[in-house]
UniProtKB/TrEMBL annotation:
Single GO cellular component term: membrane
Subcellular location: Membrane
Pfam family, one: LemA
Broad class of where this protein is predominantly found: membrane
Protein's membrane topology: Single-pass membrane protein
Family statement: Belongs to the LemA family.
Species, as recorded: Pandoraea eparura
Protein name per the record: LemA
Keywords: Membrane, Transmembrane, Transmembrane helix
Length: 204
């Protein structure tokens, strides 16, 4: 039996109406806002990772410069090298944001590198010639600037995650979030903040 044109038009209209209703329901249940907030968290996280990578890139030159003056500080230099290797060996993906254990490992590795760099900066106080070296002073300045950028990026990430987590826990958004697999994301812990929020001391 051949379907008449009006029937075809009616079926097409019904499909569009159903699609519009579904879109409206998803929007009313917070789906679109979850997407916006999830993307904001990812963008903030990318900046955190970018700044940590910037710091890691400074370490080899810094270590080599110190090594030229402080040959007796091999243990401190080795600690920095090992901490950098550990921090850069962790594969960071968008899934890291949804895996509390992976996120914790990332935090710990960055905290260890922060501690090792702080000890390295303290060692430089014992070597006047090192402190007077132009390259070393430039690297110290870059490190200090990068640590400040890390702090800013980390704070923005903390705020983005807090905004996202509050939203996906609210009713009825929590139902939509659960339906589509958007759970709360891990954030920096208080212990980790103490370990990495203090930039290595830069004294001249």
């Amino acid at each position: 039996m051949q379907v008449s044109l009006p029937t075809k038009l009616r079926q097409s209209w019904m499909r569009w109406l159903a699609l519009g209703l579904l879109t409206s329901l998803l929007s009313a249940c917070g789906y679109n806002q979850i997407q916006v907030k999830d993307e904001a968290v990812k963008a903030a996280w990318s900046e955190v990772v970018n700044q940590y990578q910037r710091r890691a890139d400074l370490v080899p030159n810094l270590v080599n410069t110190v090594k030229g003056y402080a040959t007796h500080e091999q243990t401190t230099l080795t600690d920095v090298i090992n901490a950098r290797a550990k921090a850069t060996s962790i594969t960071v993906t968008p899934e890291t944001l949804n895996d509390p254990e992976a996120f914790k490992r990332f935090q710990q590795a960055q905290g260890e590198l922060s501690g090792a760099l702080s000890r390295l900066m303290a060692v430089s106080e014992n070597y006047p010639n090192l402190k007077a070296d132009g390259l070393f002073r430039d690297l110290q300045s870059q490190l200090e600037g990068t640590e400040n950028r890390i702090t800013v990026a980390r704070n923005r990430y903390i705020q983005a995650v807090q905004d996202y987590n509050v939203y996906v826990r609210q009713f009825p958004n929590n139902l939509t979030a659960k339906m589509f697999g958007y759970g709360p994301k891990p954030n920096f812990t208080v212990e980790n903040e103490k370990a990495i929020s203090t930039a290595p001391a830069v004294k001249f």
